From TrEMBL:
UniProt keyword annotation of Transmembrane present: yes
Name used for this protein in its record: Uncharacterized protein
Record's keyword terms, sorted: Membrane, Transmembrane, Transmembrane helix
Species classification: Archaea, Nanobdellota, Candidatus Nanoclepta
Record flagged with keyword Membrane: yes
Membrane-spanning residues: 12-32, 75-97, 104-124, 130-147, 154-172, 192-210, 240-257, 263-280, 311-330
Amino acid sequence: MKIKLRTEHLIFLLSLSINIIITILSSNSLMWDENVYLANAKHVLGITPYFEHFRFPLLWWNIALLIPLIKENYLLVRIYLSIIFSVSTVFFYRILLKTLKEDWKAIIFTLLIILNGLMIIYSNRIYPDVYGMSFLIISIYSFHNYLESKRERDFIFFILFSILSFLAKYPYGLFLLSSWIFVDRKEKMRSIAYSILFLTPFFLYNLLLYKNPIKILLDQFYLAYLWQTKEPISLFFENALRYLGILIFSVFFIPIKDGKFERSIYLFTLLSFIYFAFLTPQKDPRYLIQILPTSIIIFGINTEKLKGFELLIYILLSFSMIYSTINGIFDTTNINLCYGELSSAYQSVQFLKKENATKVLSNAFWVWYGNLLNIESYSIYNNSLDYFVEKYDPDFIVYSKNYGISVELNLSRYRKVFEYMDFCGIDVKIYRVR
């Protein structure tokens, strides 16, 4: 029996193949937040004491369901998340096919998301950004279907996947707000009812553990702002040009006479743009992931209105995609070098493992120790070393001069037992306390 491959199958296979190759080539590197989400999942299963309660919940709830099946095989977690993203690219293609009407255009604009540099870096990583974006894409697809058909099933899926994207990363909730503004009164009431229904597990979780239905939501915003380094707005635009290129100009395509769908995704894009550019202190390029899919859709829709300039636009989009992909490959290579087996983080993990460490203080790599060693691990977040030693009674102190939290520590009373500097110039020194 011959299986006929459709365009959707080819898109899925292309996306998944790229991500599996990248995952295999970078199998021994974990970035900061990957350790945290893995540790959170293992904490609820009683595997590690390390836990950061305020993290966006859906990702580590999901991983907690996987670990009993795959144990601590992080490679499989990354492949699992790559599959979710690859499925979402099929829905993204369907959205573009509905809005652009022509298959070749839908394929080209789908490639803009698959080959984007941010996807090269993060779609195979244990981060909530692409995970949440994948649910957002399915929600947008369902919203478009609902506006066409008015089927209740599509409306339910639209709300459900909006809530899932919100629980994956709270700023994605801007899409539910943006679409809510443009629906009629009865639809507004139904969307509120369904949202409350789908958020019930989240509310109950917070009530049972913290006596406040939105405790971790509040703590996420408070702690994220507390610990984020304030960076210049110019860095946001620099990152946007590197990874979005000409797509960043989608915010200028104001849909004055367009329908509810166009106005909803435009408002979402504009609000996200304002939030990350002007209201978020840190300008991490991965925040642009939230803007990426709707920017592509908006640009695709508006190419239809720019007759006579289409060739120029496609040339600029091609250059943007190539430049973004190259940046993604370069940054992925750098991540593998700085967080792989030869990194200071992993070398210190191996030393502490050999020494059977049980409790560690660090200004730099505590999340690696909490996750990879399944031990108590605490951050040194100011210069009061004596306070931390007295409070936690660690057996080792790990200090880095040029990574993590910048602190000045007097370690003269402790014996240095390990020192290493990796290819990225990140240093680590380990001191024995007892």
